[in-house]
Specification:
Blueprint: H1 3-7, E1 12-16, E2 19-23, H2 36-46, E3 51-56, H3 62-70, E4 74-80, H4 83-95, E5 102-106, E6 117-122, E7 127-128, E8 149-150, H5 156-168, E9 169-179, E10 182-187, H6 191-203, H7 206-215, E11 224-225, H8 229-239
Parallel strand pairs: 3-4, 3-6, 4-5, 6-9, 7-8, 10-11
Antiparallel strand pairs: 1-2, 9-10
Length: about 240
């Protein structure tokens, strides 16, 4: 079933990192300005180097496309386990003429991606499924539930991705996750640190964030990088010049 025949009447458009992206509100997650942090992270880490990158949970394909335009020597695999998202992302890739460097694949996390990777980017569901009916959950009301919520405490997709990175990241590769509006980064040797950090952030609890929102105060934590990952991108770029 083609994207055009099934959903043309519902499509929209947003500008993401200066690039027009076709959207499908309610069916595929619409990219938000917060996700630009993943693009910035990728651009700083790989620059103009030849790099193998995965954008996991690609949705519209916005992150993969933005990274491809900023990093002209990157080869990018964009994955999603939702067939509608894959069709939409492929349409966006074709729209920007990036088929030679961005391949959109249907599958779970890194399973469809061949070989080792220099960089893994992901904005996966991380909210507990039980919260999807909560009255305070207004920020995500226009997004499809499967793109926002996951079973249990909500973190399992991120845990599974970190586990997959243990085998598919290059020895000097790194992963960058978007979680609670911030980027968390770690190298392959630092994945246990990353796992502990996402668990710690989750333990802060939705109640604390909701209370802060109700009071009109910010309850955010800044970006986080494992012990050596903050400088690993610069070191890797220098080593490959």
């Amino acid at each position: 079933m083609s994207l055009r025949s099934a959903t043309a009447e519902r499509t929209g458009e947003v500008v993401f990192d200066g690039v027009p992206i076709i959207t499908l509100p309610g069916a595929v997650m619409t990219p938000t300005p917060a996700t630009l942090a993943l693009v910035e992270e990728a651009a700083q880490r790989i620059g103009s180097l030849q790099s193998r990158v995965a954008d996991v949970g690609t949705g519209t394909g916005a992150v993969a496309i933005a990274v491809a335009l900023r990093a002209p020597n990157a080869r990018i695999w964009a994955t999603d386990d939702d067939a509608t998202a894959v069709s939409l992302a492929r349409a966006n890739v074709v729209r920007h003429g990036l088929q030679e460097r961005v391949e959109v694949l249907l599958g779970n996390l890194l399973e469809p991606v061949p070989g080792r990777l220099d960089l893994v980017l992901a904005n996966l569901p991380y909210h507990a499924e039980a919260r999807s009916l909560g009255p305070d959950e207004t920020a995500n009301r226009d997004q499809p539930e499967h793109a926002v919520y996951a079973c249990g405490d909500g973190l399992q997709p991120n845990r599974d991705l970190i586990q997959a990175c243990r085998t598919q990241l290059d020895d000097r590769g790194c992963v960058a996750l978007q979680l609670y509006g911030s980027v968390l980064g770690a190298g392959r040797a630092e994945l246990d640190e990353l796992l502990r950090e996402i668990e710690a952030r989750a333990r802060e609890g939705w109640e604390a964030r909701a209370a802060a929102d109700a009071a009109g105060t910010a309850h955010t934590r800044g970006p986080w990088y494992a012990t050596s990952s903050a400088s690993s991108g610069r070191a890797r770029r220098a080593a490959r010049r």
